[in-house]
Each structure stands twice: as C-alpha cells, then as structure tokens.
C-alpha cells in the first residue's frame, strides 16, 4: 500500500473512532431504541393550544417507563443497603468441607445486603428489629448465599408459623401502623420466642450501625468433606469494628437526627476508604453429638453453649454499588443457593426457607431473576432451564434435554447430596426438648447491670401497649420463668400483679 493510501486509511479510522466515541458518550438524550430524543422539554401538540399528540412516542415511552418503575418490595426485609467486597479464608478446613470458597489462597467476591425486617422499603432504619446480614459469595463452584441476621437465634422454630409471625409484627392490616398489641398477641402463644425477645430488647438488638454488629447464619448447616462425611456447623460473623448499640434513652434522638443512619454510616465509611471487616467463625458438631444436649441443636431458637468457635476467614466490604435498584433491590438471596460441600441441616425453619426465597423471587423479580447481573454466577450456567419472561440466558443448541447421546452434559455426576440416616414415620408433632426459657435466663444473667435495666425499660415500654390481660400475663410469666429477677422487674415496670405472674410461671414446664 502506498504511503498516501496508508495515511488515508489511518485518517478514516481515526475519524470513525472520533464519531463512535462522540456518539457513545453522547451528551445527547436517546430513547430506549437508542435514537436521539431531540426536545425533552416540550410535548408535541396540535398547534399552540391543541391537545398532545399520540404520535409523540418519546413522551409516551417516558411516561410508560416511569409508570412501571416500582416492583413489589420484599415481603420482609424490604428496607436494605448493599455493598460489594471480598471473602478470604484464613484456615484449611478441607477435613470438614469440599467448598472451595474455604480453600486457602482463594479470594471470593461478595455482595452483602443489610436490612431491617418489618418496615416498608422507605421506613426508618432505627427500629427495634433484627437486622438482615445476607452474604452472596460468587464462588468458583457457583453462588453460595448465607442469609443471616445480627442475632444468633430466631423467634420460632417451625416454618409453618412464619407467615403468622410476620403478619402479627408487620404494620396492622387495618391501620398500616405497627402495633405491639398484635405482636405480643402472637408471642403470648409462642413461648419459644422468649430468648429471641430478650436479645431483641437488649442493646444487641439495637445496633447503631451495620458496621458495629455481628452476623449469624442462625441455623445449623451441614459441611460435607471429600469422604462424604458430614458435620453440623453454625456460622458467626464477628465485627472487627466491635459491637455498639443504642440505649433506650438515646433512640428517639437518633431517629430524629437521621432516618437513614445505618446506610449513611456504612456508605460514609466506604467512601472514605474505611473498609469494614468481619471475621467468620464456625462451631462444629458431629452427628453423634446432637443428642448430648438437653436442647435440640437443630432448633434455631438455641445457641450452642459450650461449643468452641474457630476462625476460618475474613469478609471485607469496600465498594458502594453505583445503582441502588440494579444491585440492592434486584439482588436475590436464598438459603437454598448452596455449593458442593455445604448442605442444609434438618432444622425445620431452614427447611421452609429452602423453598420460600426462590419462590418469592420468581414473583418479585420474574422467573429469570438469576440472570440479572447482581445475581448471575461468575461461572457458566449449563442446564436445560429455558425461556420464560425476559430470558437472556443465551443457552445454545437444540438438545435441551438430558440424558442425550448428542451432547456432552455430564452424565456421571461428580457430586451427590450427602446420605443422612432417617428414622420414624411421617408425623406432625412439636420437637422434643423445647427448653423454651433457660437460655433467655442465661443471657439475662450475663448482661451487666446497666444493660439489664435498659432491657427492662425497652421491653416494658412495648409490653405496656398490650391491652389484652391474658397476653400480658402470659408474656410476663415467660420472662419470670427465664429468670425470677427479670420477670419481677418487668412485672413492676408494667404494674402487674406479681403473685399472678409467679403462679402462671409455676405452671410452665421446661422440657
Ligand atoms: C421459615 C422461616 C422464614 C421464611 C419463610 C422467610 C422468608 C423470607 C422471604 C420470603 C424473604 C424475602 C426474600 C426476597 O424477596 O428476596 C426473606 C428475606 C430475608 N430473610 Fe427470611 N424467612 C424466614 C426466616 C428467616 C430467618 C430465620 C432468617 C435469619 C437467619 C432470615 C433472614 C432473612 C434475610 C436476611 C432476608 C433479606 C435478604 C435480602 O437482603 O434480600 N429469614 N425471608
């Protein structure tokens, strides 16, 4: 090619690049088809005083898109805050699990969503409410979601009670306002909630920042190793920032000062380069050890007292997502999203959760929600799930079934779920060894004097809204049964008859 021709070609390429560059970060507004909008301030009208024209397709598209901006909010945990980060293991636990997220030397990207539970999407972040601590690990074996909260236990132990628990604690079906009277109408019939209520009304239940709280997986899960042996495991995120909460006397001022305290605190820290960290600890039990306790270790209302914790890694958050809707709102966490080496235990609550999350997400976000960038695994997805609204999975080929001699989808699975011995018949019965009150008392007695007083102040504040006498006395009897001093102080603070509280507590059987 001559020099002249060469120069001509180069100048053509340069001109094309300039044109492309200027159109791609065009300051110009476009419609959804990419064509220029032109005038975005004046609708097309029939003359100076006539009506707006149907042919103004930009106006129509703009209004239509606006009209469809909202999707259903999460049925619980609607108010949330997301952040990106990474998880780095710190110990070799290959004797316990084949999950590669724990292989020393790996670094796994994560997305974390913190939340409150009962409030609506725009509700204040300072509420007497557990805090969601949901972690999505984008591992090389697919996504693992550890969907936990900031407390080590839960209110109830059977998924069949969850919708009722939520109805009673969410804003009233009549007024749209949360009502302690309804909440305690439920709890008066759920003595297993005594421990969780005690923690919720303590300072641990009122963190002043997402950075200053721990997180827990709550349930027991199974770790499965390369020999197909399993152990039961509980997860605990320990805040490197330390735990800090609001005392009852400081709560009104804090809500008044900033409704969005938790988000502003977290994003403020991230933007300042002050990356918060949590160390991950586990407790481990062999299947043969489950019966050694006087409670059921697969009951999510119980902590595993006396079982040592060991550190296995560190989570660091370092980035504010740049689009709230496409990350925090469209993120979908589910306890059922596990990876080889991690499996569900037989915990009755966890078993219900195994179904509920992906189900609600198909309703909230649509059948193909796993293809959204925030939810998409960082490894290829290879299966014959197909089509459906808004599918962009890009699966190829006409062999959309299996087995087949025509494609190479694995027909010799390398991975099977672990074998667990089972016993008994089908049944509908409460678990044995409920032990509803003892751990609440142990927790109460562990608190320093000031925190005990604050707990009584906070809890009696809500119990004083209970108008139904039987419910009020039932609640007081549970706390009295947990610890006589605790129950006595609550009875005084709610102007209750202590003799009646005691005689009800005497009838409660701890078994
Ligand atoms: C059977 C009991 C439970 C059921 C049926 C249930 C159901 C749900 C549902 C339907 C959602 C909304 C999910 C979405 O729209 O993406 C949700 C969110 C959530 N749940 Fe549960 N839940 C249960 C118990 C628990 C427990 C025990 C914990 C804590 C260990 C928990 C922690 C969370 C968290 C953190 C979120 C928010 C996840 C996010 O940030 O998107 N839930 N739950």
UniProtKB/TrEMBL annotation:
Matches recorded under Pfam families: Catalase, Catalase-rel
Signal peptide start and end residues: 1-26
Reaction catalysis annotation: 2 H2O2 = O2 + 2 H2O
EC assignment: 1.11.1.6
Principal location: other
GO terms classed as biological process: hydrogen peroxide catabolic process; response to hydrogen peroxide
Compartmental location: Peroxisome
UniProt GO MF annotations: catalase activity; heme binding; metal ion binding
Record flagged with keyword Signal: yes
Binding site for heme: 357
Region listing for Disordered, in residue ranges: 29-51
Entry cofactors: heme
Biased composition (Polar residues): 38-47
Keywords: Heme, Hydrogen peroxide, Iron, Metal-binding, Oxidoreductase, Peroxidase, Peroxisome, Signal
Alphabetical list of SMART domains matching this protein: Catalase
Domain Catalase core span(s) in chain numbering: 30-410
GO cellular component, one term: cytoplasm
Keyword Lipid metabolism attributed: no
Physiological role: Catalyzes the degradation of hydrogen peroxide (H(2)O(2)) generated by peroxisomal oxidases to water and oxygen, thereby protecting cells from the toxic effects of hydrogen peroxide.
Subunit structure: Homotetramer.
UniProt family annotation: Belongs to the catalase family.
Protein name: Catalase
Organism: Medicago truncatula (Barrel medic)
Gene: 25481675
